[in-house]
What does this fold into?
Amino acid sequence: MPRKFFVGGNWKLNGDKKSLGDLINTLNSAKISGDAEVVCGAPSIYLDFARSKLDAKIGVAAQNCYKVAKGAFTGEISPAMIKDCGVQWVILGHSERRHVFGESDELIGQKVAHALESGLGVIACIGEKLDEREAGITEKVVFEQTKVIADNVKDWSKVVLAYEPVWAIGTGKTASPQQAQEVHDKLRQWIKANVSEAVANSVRIIYGGSVTGATCKELASQKDVDGFLVGGASLKPEFVDIINAKA
It folds into this structure.
């Protein structure tokens, strides 16, 4: 069965009710390919707003959550709260969580396990930094990150893997379509060897890192690139072009 194209928009720490409301109106009125699954990652304070305003055909994701349902964890949100807002997805392990906020592989694995147990879909992020790519250890880094995620997954139908080379996020540098395809192919081989062939064939591996309207079509044409996790461009009308990259 072909893998359904998946496009996530990660709004990060951006927007207010007016600008996000305008963006939502643009998305709601846009002609969006029925062959793509679309999910918008809103700041937690706007999850309710985004879910109530966005068309039902567009999903909403939280950008992070904690590893337990409730408790004395000031400033955190739980999968139970996310679901209570009608939201079905969460982004976990984003490089900004790893490298700006110091989240460890172990913590990300625990979050993945709890989010999945709670019934959320997980967009799980992996990717190497520039010094790691230059040292020739890209595979080692992304396989280690993927292993910690895989060890915490029972149902892969609820997981989308997002490969985001850290050196390409927000820098304007995009991995070439060939670079992206090479890592996606290696990841699929790793999953085949360490999880199962069925999961390797069905799991969606999406690419993130300065994806734009200009770069999306060639990236989308790669055999193992099953969609995108889009940062800055997801706040602009060109997000529609990215969603329709395969249309």
Q: What stands out?
A: Residues 93 and 108 are 6 Å apart (CA to CA). The chain has a mean pLDDT of 97. Strands lie at 5-10, 36-41, 58-62, 89-92, 121-126, 159-163, 204-208, 227-230.
